From TrEMBL, chain A:
CC annotations in GO: plasma membrane; respiratory chain complex IV
Signal peptide, first to last residue: none
Gene transcribed to yield this protein: ctaD
CDD domains, per the entry: Cyt_c_Oxidase_I (cd01663)
Protein name, as recorded: Cytochrome c oxidase subunit 1
Catalytic reaction(s) noted: 4 Fe(II)-[cytochrome c] + O2 + 8 H(+)(in) = 4 Fe(III)-[cytochrome c] + 2 H2O + 4 H(+)(out)
Subcellular location: Cell membrane; Membrane
UniProtKB/TrEMBL annotation, chain B:
Cytochrome oxidase subunit II transmembrane region profile domain: residues covered: 33-129
Residue ranges of every copy of the Cytochrome oxidase subunit II copper A binding domain listed in the record: 136-273
Originating species: Zoogloea ramigera
Keyword Plastid: no
Name assigned to this protein: Cytochrome c oxidase subunit 2
CC cofactor note: Binds a copper A center.
UniProt xrefs under Gene3D superfamilies: 1.10.287.90, Cupredoxins - blue copper proteins, Cytochrome c-like domain
UniProt keyword terms in alphabetical order: Copper, Electron transport, Heme, Iron, Membrane, Metal-binding, Respiratory chain, Signal, Translocase, Transmembrane, Transmembrane helix, Transport
Catalysed reaction equations from the record: 4 Fe(II)-[cytochrome c] + O2 + 8 H(+)(in) = 4 Fe(III)-[cytochrome c] + 2 H2O + 4 H(+)(out)
Gene Ontology biological process terms from the UniProt entry: ATP synthesis coupled electron transport
GO molecular function, one term: cytochrome-c oxidase activity
Similarity-based family: Belongs to the cytochrome c oxidase subunit 2 family.
Domain Cytochrome c as annotated: residue spans: 293-382
Amino acid sequence: MNTATHTLDGHGGHAHQPGGLLRWLTTTNHKDIGTMYLSFSLLMFFVGGAMILAVRAELFQPGLQLMKPEFFNQLIGVHALVMIFAALMPAATGFANWMIPLMIGAPDMALPRLNNWGFWLLPPAAILLTLPFVLALFGIGDGAVATGWTLYAPLSVQGGIGVDFAIFAIHILGISSIMGSINIIATILNMRAPGMTLMKMPLFCWGWLVTAVLLIVTLPVLAGGVTMLLTDRHFGTHFFDAAGGGDPILFQHLFWFFGHPEVYILLLPVWGLMPHVLSTFSRKPVYGHTGQVWSFVAIGVLGLVVWGHHFMTAGLPVPALLYFMYSTMSISLPLAVLFFCWIATMWRGAMSFETPMLFAVGFIVLFGIAGLTGLVLADVAADAQYHHSYFVVAHFHYALFAGGIMGVMTGVYYWLPKWTGHMYSERLGKLHFWLTVISFNLTFMPQFFLGLAGMPRRIPDYALQFAEFNAISTVGSFVLGLSQLLFAYNIWRCIKGGEKASNGVWEGTHGLEWELSSPPPHHSWETQPVIKD
Amino acid sequence: MTILNPSRRNASSSASFSRLALGTGLTLGASAALADYTWNFPKPVTPIGRDTLSMHNQFMVVITVLFVVVFAIMLYSMIRHRKSVGAQPAGFSGPTGALQWFWVLVPFAILLFIDFVLMGIPAFHAVIEMEDTRTKADMVLKVTGLQWKWKYEYPDSGIGFVSALSTPREQIEGQAAKGENYLLEVDNEVVLPVGRKVRILLTSTDVIHTWWVPQFGVKRDAIPGFLRETWVRIEEPGVYRGQCAELCGKDHGFMPVVVRAVPEPEYAAWVAGKKAEMAAAAAGSDKAWSKDELMAAGKAAYEKNCAACHQPEGQGIPPAFPALAGSKIVTGPLLSPEGRLIPDSHVDRVLNGKAGTAMQAFKATLSDADLAAIITYERNAFGNNKGDMIQPAQIKALR
């Protein structure tokens, strides 16, 4: 895009770079690759969003109006896989690519070729995930994976070719994520500017360091789980089939050993970003830097040992239920440290509310709802009522939309002037924020009540007492979906031009990344800066 | 470093605050005006259901208080500590001194108390009670999940039957007005006595299902190849409705649970009636049926048990659910010349299912008469016109 084209002019040492499509295919520049990750993420955000709008349209009223249940099941599962693996994770990786070298004073990522490969694995994986929809149109197979994103055996053993496509897509996405993680760890551990000790390192880099470790620990387990599923499907093994000595619940253990840390994989980069934004717009230093670092580590460690709370109705033994309940509750403690530090960073500052700050505040409040409902979900007895219901759907959308996606939007508005060298339209940004936050609550707040009233998730049609809340939720979701076009338009406008951004962009910024020009030079830090204090 | 046009920016952000307040107020007001809404769990009718509801209510109060207190502090700061009202930023970045540390640690002491005492202790007792399925259990109900219906068995009295959705397709597809219990009604309700502790054993024949009746506060997975258990003691007579809660394939949204709780004498009468019904069905296996009888019974049983996948006209939904019209298997030989089962034949498929697919072993859920009728019907309907038939007695011999 414009950013890097612009930087091509003024600097030496990269005259051999090809132009056009070949440039993007072969680039090893962290900023180009970051831009590709973010653009891919935005595209897939709309793909996943379109799928769920079709689902919400079907759920507008009781009865089956638009689609058959089997197609409905495909949409909900692929929506989740696309949003998690192809929208949220690449957005966070895009941030890491762009910002980590700038923040730690490095010229680029440690492993640039691996970086390029890691990105270019994503489009084929996304195609694998969605191709079965297209194949079904030509009479090949019966559509995409219809098991929900959790792929629970034996339903996934029974499924059509969509399951195989999803398994291979997950393998490829997993390889891509592991390569990205290795790169980030190598960069952070080896390329920090002299004087930047680990404890002085910016919190965004810390959030990503813990994320990268979690990815490397958990993704191989998921890959193993889905490979066992593949051999159960095609090669006569019985890992998940009781008739052959297997156990369907084993799959749930393997899946959620990855699946729970995955929540923190999606959120830790955002938690790392928040203190930067809050400190900038409060014009005050980050509160509790050390405390936040140790909270990230604590959440990472605890996140690895609480997976069982995702299937408390599966009949776990009492000691396991108690263990998973209390260990899950204990996550509220490091999380509370983060909330405390966020608010303490704002406290007695001199705040102004530009779009990134609005999104950050919106994030804190709505993610607070996710955290508090998560606390009650941990209680085994009450969980029996919440589990598999719309209460859970609402809870994790507060965590992953308000926490994840709105966190990403915070980062995009905060850093976009740095990346492009132009200011975005503040008026459109604020409009986007208010439309998003109101329609988000309109969509998901009713789902808490649907869940309490007894509506199970993943059903294409429902009893009449659920009709009103579903209608409200559908209206909200369409406003929410359409509002995101404003986001894309604002980004597009900002890339095309606009008011020049200064090096520091915002009044209260602090850190190495704000000392470089906006946009930064092609090789970022050609001379390593030295951290003195 | 400069910030662009700070005064204008701040003016519009204060306007933004009032818009947020207004927006939230309107949303809440509009929702409260609609009377039909349910805001909480439906009325519980079991000890566990009551426990769960009171715990849920208590927790909701706790988290609401936490939410309000924490964000009131934040909101206060956002109003007072604004650049536009002339706030000067402080420079502190962490707790220093014993007093500050004390105030930093107080919220965590409170949270520890909330987590492990206020919420943790009642939760502990509730879990222990919920999982105690055996103490003083009066009777057993065995629940088996099948794609996409429930089979219920009463080991004490030998009763067993399948319970499936009874909402007509026309209502689902919008060709008829939806009834009061749309999607939450079944052909055979489970009947349980009021006031007795019923130990519920759950399993499944195909994929994982979850048995859930919100008013019982009970939800438990039914897992193929394993037994799981839970219990209910229903305190009030009535009809209680729930649904399968685990995605189990295409008709996951169409497998309701309906429990009718009745006083003891009524329950005894129901058991006697059900036993007589089963004896009559067993007698059906031994009598010789005419082809017309089998075809008529077969059409009804096919539409109830098979048409969801193979479709009313037998065209199926290939490739997941193959067509029966013109199918090689259906139009293949019926039985071997010695009257034995031919592997992978039509009869074998219907009786024993096909591993790894949604085609289940129907001998586990259907009577001999129903199986014979369905097989005869499939071989002679949809233009298959095989002309042969099979008697319930032959099915009985194959079991």
